[in-house]
Design brief:
310 residues; alpha/beta; Rossmann fold; 5-stranded parallel beta sheet; 11 helices; 9 strands; 15% strand
Length: 310
């Protein structure tokens, strides 16, 4: 291991070699998941708190399974059934939890920077499981891990991220991570869903999906956040599907197979057609399985594990 990692707050500023370390260790834990007995004693005696202030299915279950596979003691916190409802602040809540002698905190919060705040006030290791529209580093890492299983290298691959870039923490972490790994990153979506001046991050911006598809090796398709439709960011769901939906017909225009990814949950028939989501080139369910392995790798490295695992 290069250096003892204290936290995983985001991929902004993380080097390619640091990212590769997570991917290399995840490969080992992915093999563990295929064994008849999947439990390891790696985090025995460690207490991990899953501090979720936002609803979550995939991310929360993935972290819980990763923790259980490594024999950690787990405390699950839900804001809806806690003293938060009585007005307790985030810092007071985590300070009280830390007083119970915990080792690691996995936090999801609606406020950008929440994980960074916790890293400054707690002695525990902090893992950002999504903070507002800021970053979702473990999702991007598992996306890159999934890509690396299908290509010899991330370097010089062309990856398109399609959909609501403006409100996506997944998109931001993927941009930072993929650029660090030497990939070419394209963004595609309505102008209202792509932040102004995002090209300064070294990405290419498109508003026509049919121009993007012939260029790419990977399509990472983001969920259209239906809760934002009332704000008029695009005229209608039907129009979005017509202009940006990923369909078999569109994919036939490519001269090579394209790897299809989606972080979930999917809106079938809107951003992605069902026959594409379930196609032979889709790795959407592989992403879910790989999420457990990648999060095991993150927990392991933050707990002081070594890259050379035997």
């Amino acid at each position: 291991m290069q250096t003892q990692k204290r936290h995983l707050l985001g991929l902004d500023g993380m080097s390619g070699s640091q990212i590769q370390e997570f991917l290399d260790v995840a490969k080992h834990f992915r093999e563990v998941l295929d064994r008849p007995i999947k439990r390891l004693p790696t985090l025995q005696g460690k207490t991990v708190v899953n501090l979720f202030y936002e609803p979550s299915t995939r991310t929360r279950i993935s972290f819980e399974l990763a923790e259980k596979r490594m024999s950690a003691d787990i405390v699950n916190f839900s804001a809806s059934t806690s003293s938060v409802k009585k007005g307790e602040t985030l810092i007071d809540t985590v300070k009280n939890i830390e007083a119970m002698k915990i080792d690691m905190v996995v936090v999801r919060h609606s406020s950008p920077g929440a994980a960074h705040i916790l890293s400054r006030v707690l002695d525990a290791n902090i893992i950002n499981a999504g903070d507002g529209g800021h970053e979702h580093p473990t999702q991007a890492l598992l996306d890159m891990f999934t890509i690396s299983q299908n290509f010899s290298s991330l370097k010089d691959l062309t990856v398109a991220i399609v959909g609501d870039i403006a409100h996506s923490r997944v998109a931001m972490s993927n941009i930072y991570g993929l650029k660090s790994m030497g990939a070419r990153v394209l963004l595609c979506g309505p102008a209202t869903l792509i932040p102004r001046e995002i090209d300064k991050l070294g990405v290419e911006v498109y508003h026509n999906i049919d121009e993007v598809i012939p260029q790419v090796d990977v399509l990472n398709i983001l969920r259209i956040q239906l809760e934002r439709q009332s704000s008029g960011l695009f005229p209608s769901l039907r129009e979005y599907h017509n202009y940006f939906g990923i369909t078999r017909e569109r994919l036939r225009r490519a001269d090579r197979p394209i790897l299809i990814m989606h972080p979930g949950p999917m809106n079938r028939g809107l951003e992605i057609a069902s026959d594409v989501a379930d196609s032979e080139h889709s790795v959407i369910l592989e992403q879910v399985t790989n999420g457990v392995a990648l999060r095991m790798a993150v927990l392991y490295l933050l707990a002081g594990g070594q890259s050379e695992i035997h």
